[in-house]
Specification:
- With 262 residues, this protein is of the alpha/beta class.
- It is built from 12 helices and 10 strands.
- The strands form 2 sheets. A 5-stranded parallel β-sheet has the order 2-1-3-4-5, sandwiched between helices. Strands 7-6-8-9-10 form a 5-stranded parallel β-sheet, sandwiched between helices.
- Helix 2 packs parallel to helix 3.
- It is elongated, with a radius of gyration of 21 Å.
- The two termini are 33 Å apart.
Length: 262
């Protein structure tokens, strides 16, 4: 088996539910994967040493609580958190019969799940320690899509970053000049298709602001068919890195950390 450090597997046939859970557990050192069913999950657990599984009770092949003995047979040390959209006395009785670490109802306070995951790693002696340096690092999200900024902000804050948002080019310049962020997440297409290009060009040609790393985050390739790469198109758009939407939190955090360490 490959030995992992603070690995979590979310098993949920509802892709949206899995995405909603991910930001709650994408934290310092947590490596999160998702699976839609028990067969796929079992194969993954054979190959990877997961610490914790967050598993929904309604799986395509069987009830989640029925799958617990299967997973425990593969890895007896696996810590399992069972989730359910709604609870009943009968369902809870079935779940509690199994060897689980925690039972979480999705309509309850998300902080309960976050604390349960932290307790798993405390039990395993893998206590999360957020670097103090990150608490002072500022990330500015520049994007006219408020739902995107609302979704990505808690992912970044969970890693200890200070996060601000700006929703147009003018507001972005005001916040950049005022707070001098350590990193900028920049959408390309905003009010105008060229807003991101224009803003990045202005930043990279300003002696006081040019050192701020810019991570372009955009759906430009999918929406207009323009294949963009800073490596080949950097003459005008000198972003330090580029990632396509939709963005996986794990991938985004790796890019952010890499740019802040550069």
């Amino acid at each position: 088996m490959k030995v992992g450090y603070k690995r979590i597997l979310i098993i949920d046939p509802d892709s949206k539910a899995a995405r909603d859970l991910s930001p709650l557990v994408v934290d310092e050192g947590y490596d999160v994967e998702t699976s839609k069913g028990i067969r796929e999950a079992a194969e993954r657990i054979k190959d990877v040493n997961f610490d914790c599984v967050i598993m929904d009770v309604d799986l395509p092949e069987m009830k989640g609580y029925e799958a617990i003995p299967i997973l425990k047979a593969i890895d007896p040390k696996l810590q399992i958190i069972m989730t359910a959209a709604e609870n009943t006395m009968e369902l809870e009785a079935e779940v509690r019969k199994q060897d689980i670490f925690f039972y979480y109802i999705k309509s309850f306070d998300p902080e309960e799940l976050r604390e349960a995951v932290q307790d798993v790693f405390k039990k395993l002696g893998k206590v999360k320690k957020v670097k103090e340096m990150r608490k002072s690092q500022k990330v500015l999200i520049i994007d006219d899509d408020s739902s995107y900024t609302a979704a990505i902000t808690p992912v970044l804050e969970a890693r200890g970053y200070q996060v601000e948002a700006a929703y147009n080019k003018e507001e972005a310049m005001e916040k950049i000049e005022k707070s001098k962020p350590d990193l900028i997440l920049l959408d390309i297409m905003m009010e105008k298709l060229t807003d991101g290009f224009d803003l990045c060009y202005k930043l990279k040609h300003d002696p006081e602001l040019s050192k701020i790393p810019v991570l372009a985050v955009s759906a430009i390739n999918n929406e207009i068919g323009f294949i963009f790469s800073p490596g080949t198109d950097g003459e005008y758009f000198q972003a330090d890195d580029f990632i396509e939407k939709p963005v996986k939190p794990k991938n985004l955090l790796k890019r952010v950390e890499k740019l802040l360490k550069a």
